[in-house]
Amino acid sequence: MTSRSLPRPVVQQSASEATAGGAAAGHHAHQPRGLLRWVLTTNHKEIGTLYLLFALLMFFIGGTMALVVRAELFQPGMTFILPEFFNQMTTMHGLIMVFGAIMPAFVGLANWMVPVQIGAPDMALPRLNNFSFWLLPVSFTILLSTLFMEGGGPNFGWTFYAPLSTTYAPPSTSFFILAMHLAGISSILGAINIIATILNLRTPNMRLMDMPLFVWTWLITAFLLIAVMPVLAGVITMMLLDINFGTSFFDAAGGGDPVLFQHLFWFFGHPEVYIMILPAFGIVSAIVPTFARKRLFGYASMVYATASIAILSFVVWAHHMFTVGLPLTAQLFFMYSTMLIAVPTGVKVFNWIATLFRGSISFELPMLFSLAFIVQFTIGGLSGVMLAIAPADFQYHDTYFVVAHFHYVLVPGAVFAILAAAYYWLPKWSGVYPNVKLGLTHFWLSVIGVNLTFFPMHFSGLAGMPRRIPDYALQFADFNLLSSIGGFLFGISQLLFVAVVILCIRGKGEKAPAQAWEGAEGLEWTLPSPAPLHTFDTPPEFVPERDSPSRH
Amino acid sequence: MLQLLYRSCGLLLLLTGPALASAINTSSGWNMPPGVTDISREIYSLHMIIFWICVAIAVVVFGVMFWSLFVYRKSKGAKPAHFHENTTVEVIWTAIPLAILVIMAIPATATLKKIYDASDAEIDILVTGYQWRWHYQYLDQDISFFSNLGTPRSQILGEEDKGDFYLLEVDNPLVLPVGKKVRFLFTSNDVIHAWWVPDLAIKKDTIPGFINESWTIINEPGTYRGQCAELCGQDHAYMPIEVRAVTEEVWLSWLDEQRETAAAEAASGEREWTLAELNERGAGVYTTYCAACHQADGSGMPPAFPALRGNPVMTSAEGRDKHINAVLFGRPGTSMPGYGTTLSVNDLAAVITYERNAWGNDTGDAVQPSEIRALLDR
C-alpha cells in the first residue's frame, strides 16, 4: 500500500508540464472573442461551463414552476391558478428538471471532469460536443414557448400518457415533441462523445479498472443513454403520427393500445431515472474518500454494483404500471426484479459507510452535501423498496408517497450530489474556494427546506392524497402547508448557491492550490487551479501501482 | 431516523393543533388506511411489516454512519486506517439484504395471488371513467347512472366554508351490499383514469378500449370515499368516488327505488315539457356535464373548448340540428363526447334547450324529449 502523503514529485512535475503546455500552445490563441467565443467553442471546459450554467438557469425556471404549484397547494380550494394552468406547471416542472436541469448538469460535469480525470486533452469529438450543447437552448426555447401558444403548453404530466397526450392534448403538443426530439439527440450525441473519449483517450497505462468512479459511472450512464433515448424518440414519433397523420398506435378505436405507450415510455423512463443517479454515485464515491482521508472501501464492487443496477434497470419498467392490469405472472416478475435492485444499491451505501469507518473525517462543504446525499438517498431508496411490493403499491401508486419517493432520490439525492460536485470542483474550475459562510448557510437551509418539503408528502400520500391534483380534501391541509413552506425555503436558499458561484467566477475568495483538498486523489488535482484552458497536451504519467483507485 | 422523524412530525402536528377534519377514511391521518376488507387489512399489515423492516435498516445503517462520523473526526485527531476490500464483509452485506427481500416477497406474493382471484363474484359492476365523472352500471340489475362531484363550486372558490367531505362527496354514490363478493369491470370512455378507494384497497386504471377487473367483499357498512388517481385532464381533482356499503335488505330496496325512479323518468319523456321546465332542468345538467369545459357563463376555453354564448350554432334556427347532433353524438376528433348513450332524453332535451336560451342566446327554442327520443331511435 502506498503512502498517501503529498506532494508526490512526479505529480508536481506533470502539473508544471501542463501549465507550460497551456501557455505555449500558440495554435489555440486564434479563437474568437466575446459572445462568439462561447457559441463556437470546442473546448471541453468551456462547453462544460455552458452546460452547467444552462442547467442552473433551467433549475431556477423549473423551480419557479414548482413554487407556483406549491403556492396553489398551500391551502385547499382554487386559490391562485386554474387547474388547467396547474397541470401545465407540474408537467413543465418535471420536463425541465429532468431534461433541462439534472441531465445537462451531469453532462456538464462529465465535460469538465472526464477528460482531466483520464488525462485526455479534450473530448474525443469536440465539434460534436459544441453541437450537442447548442441543441439544448433551442430545444428548451421551443418547449417554453408552448406556454404562450393558443391552448397552452403540455398539460399531461411529464410522463405524457396517451391518449391524454394525443387525442386530448393541446395543439402545442407537436412542438413539445420536437423539443423532446432535440433534447434526445443532444443526449445521444453527448453520450457517444463520452464513450468515445473514455474508451480512446485514457492516458497510457490507465486501464478501465484504474479509472475514477465518476468516469466509470458516466461510461455506464452513457451506454444507458444510447440504449433508451431512441426508444423515447420512437414513442414520441408514434405520438406525432397519431396526432397529425391519423395513425392509431395508442388509440384502441383504431386497433392500438394506450398501455403500449406506457410500456415504451417506461422502457425508456426507468433507465432514465438511473441516468439521473449513477453519475451522482460517482461523485459521492470521489468526495467521501477525500474527506475521510481513506480509500474507497470496495472500488471493484462499486463498479460491479453500478453495472448491475444499469442492467437491472432494463427489466423493471412495469413496476411503474402495477395498476394497469398486468397479468399475475408479469406482476410477480416485475416485483421480484425491482426488489433485486435494492441489493447493488445497498452495496453502494454500505461501501460509503465502510469508507467512513475508521477514517479521519472532516466536514468541508462537498462532504456535507455528500453525507446528506447518503442519508436522504437512502430514505428514498427504502421507500423505493416499499413501492416495489406490488400489493402495497396498489395503495401507494399515484399518491404523494410516490412524489415523496422520487423527489427524495432526485432532489436531496441527485441535486445534492450535483451541488457537492460543484463545491468540490469549483476550486479547480475557478481557482478559489467557495465562500464557506455562504456555503454553510446554503447547506443547512437546503437540508431543512428539502426535508420539510418532501418528508410530509410520505404522510399525505399514505393517508390518501393522489398526486397531480390542484385541490385536495381538508384532511391533507396540514401536510401541504408544511410542504409549501419547505418548498419556498429550499427554493429561495438556492439563490445563495448562485452567490457562491458568482464569487468564484469573479475570483473572490481564498486562492486554491493545485491539490485543493488534502485527501483528494486523481489526475485533476495535478493541474493548477484554475485549470488552464488546455491541459494534458501530452498524456500525463500514470503508474497503476501508485495512482490507480483499485491498487492494492 | 425515519421513526424519529415520524414521531417528531406527529408531535409537531399535535403542538400546532389544527383540528383535523372528520376522517375521510380509516387512515390515522398520516398512515395507510387499514380499510374494511380482508385484502385491505392484509395490504396494510404487509405495508407495516415492510415499513418496520425499512426503519430497522435505516436505524442500523444511519447508526453506524453517524457513529463513524462522530468517532472518527479529524478534529479529534483520528488517524485514517488503510484497510479496503474484504470479501467476507462484501458477501455478508449482499446476502443479508437478499434474505430480507425474500422474506418480504413471500407474503407479498401470497396477497397478490388473492387479489387476482376475481372468480365466483355475486354482483358485477361496470365502472366507466369519463372526463370528469364516473359511470356505474349494475350489469344484472338493469341500473346505471353517473356519479358526479357533489361539492358546490362556491366551496371550491372559497365563497363559502368547505364541508367535511370537501371534494370527496358525489351526487349519486355507488351502493353495494356488505358481505357479498362484488366484481368490478373497469373501462373508460376517453382518457385513462384510475378508480381508487383506499378503504377497499382497490386502485385500477380504467383504459379506453380495454377492460380491467378487480373485486371486493366489504366487511362493514359505511361510506368509503376515494378519488381518481390517474391524471386525466383539468378536472382530475374533481371526480371523487363514494361507495355506500349497506346490508343486503337495504341494498335490495335501494335497487327497487332506482328502478322506480328510472321508470318515472322514462314516462316523463313522453309528455310535452314547457320551456321554463326545460331551462330549469337544463341549467343543472349544464353545470354538471358541460361547465367544466364550456364554463358556467358559456364563454368556453378556445381553441380547445369553443364558446357557446353567442355561438351561431346556438343562436340561429339553422344551427339547431347541428347543435343537437353535436350533443348527442359528439364531435369526432375533438374532446367533445357524445352524450346520446349516456344521458337521459329528458336531460339531453333540457340541456340543449338551456344552451339555446341562456346567456342571451335567447332563441326561445324548446327541444322536446320526444324529439330526442326519435333521433336516438333512428
List the helices and strands and how they pair.
The complex is a heterodimer of chains A (552) and B (378).
Chain A: H1 9-24, H2 34-40, H3 44-72, H4 83-118, H5 126-145, H6 173-200, H7 213-244, H8 258-275, H9 278-292, H10 299-312, H11 328-340, H12 342-356, H13 365-388, H14 390-396, H15 400-430, H16 436-462, H17 477-505, H18 544-547
Chain B: H1 2-16, H2 38-71, H3 87-115, E1 123-130, E2 133-138, E3 143-147, H4 153-156, E4 174-177, E5 182-188, E6 193-197, E7 202-206, E8 212-216, E9 222-228, E10 240-246, H5 248-268, H6 275-289, H7 291-294, H8 312-315, H9 320-329, H10 345-357, H11 369-377
Parallel strand pairs in B: 1-5, 4-10
Antiparallel strand pairs in B: 1-2, 2-3, 5-8, 6-7, 6-9, 9-10
Supply the key terms.
heterodimer; A: about 550 residues; mainly alpha; Cytochrome C Oxidase, Chain A; 2 domains; 18 helices; about 65% helix; globular; disordered N terminus; B: about 375 residues; alpha+beta; Helix Hairpins; Immunoglobulin-like; Cytochrome Bc1 Complex, Chain D, domain 2; five-stranded mixed sheet; 11 helices; elongated; transport (chain B); heme binding (chain B); cytochrome-c oxidase activity (chain B); copper ion binding (chain B); translocase (chain B)
Report what the structure shows:
The complex is a heterodimer of chains A (about 550) and B (about 375). Chain A is mostly helical and about 550 residues long. Chain A folds into two domains: about 95-275, no CATH class; about 280-505, Cytochrome C Oxidase, Chain A (Up-down Bundle), CATH 1.20.210.10. Chain A has 18 helices and no strands. In chain A, helix 7 runs parallel beside helix 10 and helix 13 runs parallel beside helix 16 (about 435-460). Mean pLDDT of chain A is about 90; it is low at about 1-25. In chain B, the strands form two sheets. A five-stranded mixed β-sheet of chain B has the order 3-2-1-5-8. The longest helix of chain B has about 35 residues, at about 40-70. Residues about 15-20 of chain B have low confidence and may be disordered. At the A-B interface, helix 4, helix 10, helix 11, helix 12 and helix 13 of A face helix 1, helix 2, helix 3, strand 7 and strand 9 of B. Chain B: Its EC number is 7.1.1.9.
